[in-house]
Amino acid sequence: MTTFGAAELLDCYARGVFPMADARDDDAVFLIDPERRGVIPLAGFHLSRRLARTVRRDPFEVRIDTAFSEVVSACAAARPGRTETWINNPIERLYAELFAIGHAHSVECWAGDEMVGGLYGVSLAGAFFGESMFSTRTDASKVALTHLVARLIAGGFLLLDAQFMTEHLAQFGTEEISRAVYRRRLGKALAVTAEFQRLPAATTGAAALQVISQAS
């Protein structure tokens, strides 16, 4: 039987599909190729004035790639209003493999020694595939997303894939596009070289907002 590992998973992303599971305790993994795709525009990322003020205030210490496995585990954990998750143990293992070879990243928000929010995703050429986010403090995941967008813009990325359009993501200017349009954009993104680590790890909220503003 052919082993499905990091290389095979990257090939799936390059083809426009991504893995999911039915439940946390179900070891089966299947691939999704949705007819409609949610994409967060890097050049048209929308922040409310209130959230921009919050980001500028730096309420959290934002760290990059210092607690990747912990972010994935937090995203997989059951929370009020969300008792089930699509992240099972095989998926956690696959993303740990991607992280080990530099193709997965986390953006984390810390309050002292406590991680209170964050997100993780997969980077491949000029595309970043956002996988999941979590928050235990108000706006923590939104601050993480803002810092992610600034990092992608600075690094020359062309595509931020959000997988599905949701009411939560709509506030950031997320658009829903067809499979065909998505694959054209993905093809363009895969043809460029981008660098996730171009911004300093300790980038302030004000600096992140400036990068986003210059791209709009």
Please tally the β strands and state the result: 9
Run of helices and strands: HEEEHEHHEEEHEHEHH
Biggest pleated sheet: 7 strands, mixed
- What helical percentage do the residues reach? 25-40%
In DSSP terms, counting alpha (H) and pi (I) runs of 4 or more, how many helices?
Answer: 8
Task: Please state the average pLDDT score.
Answer: 91
Overall shape: globular
Q: Compute the gyration radius: what is it?
A: 16 Å
Q: Identify the quaternary structure here.
A: single chain
Global structural class = alpha+beta
Provide the low-confidence segments as ranges: none
Distance between the termini: 48 Å
Q: What is the topology, as strand order, of the major beta sheet? A: 4-5-6-7-8-3-9
Fraction of residues in β-strands: 15-25%
Question: Any descriptors?
Answer:
216 residues; 7-stranded mixed sheet; two-stranded antiparallel ribbon; 9 strands
Mind sketching the topology for me?
Layout: H1 6-15, E1 18-20, E2 30-32, E3 36-39, H2 49-57, E4 61-64, H3 68-76, H4 89-100, E5 104-111, E6 114-124, E7 127-135, H5 140-155, E8 159-163, H6 167-170, E9 175-178, H7 179-190, H8 205-215
Parallel strand pairs: 7-8
Antiparallel strand pairs: 1-2, 3-8, 3-9, 4-5, 5-6, 6-7
Helix pairs in contact: 1-4, 2-8, 3-4, 5-8
Mind explaining what this structure looks like?
This protein has a seven-stranded mixed sheet with strand order 4-5-6-7-8-3-9, with helices on both faces. It has a two-stranded antiparallel ribbon with strand order 1-2. The chain has 216 residues and is α+β, with helices and mostly antiparallel strands. It starts with 5 loop residues before the first helix and ends with a helix. It has eight helices and nine strands. It is found in: Cytoplasm. GO terms for molecular function: leucyl-tRNA--protein transferase activity. Keywords: Acyltransferase, Cytoplasm, Transferase. Functions in the N-end rule pathway of protein degradation where it conjugates Leu, Phe and, less efficiently, Met from aminoacyl-tRNAs to the N-termini of proteins containing an N-terminal arginine or lysine.
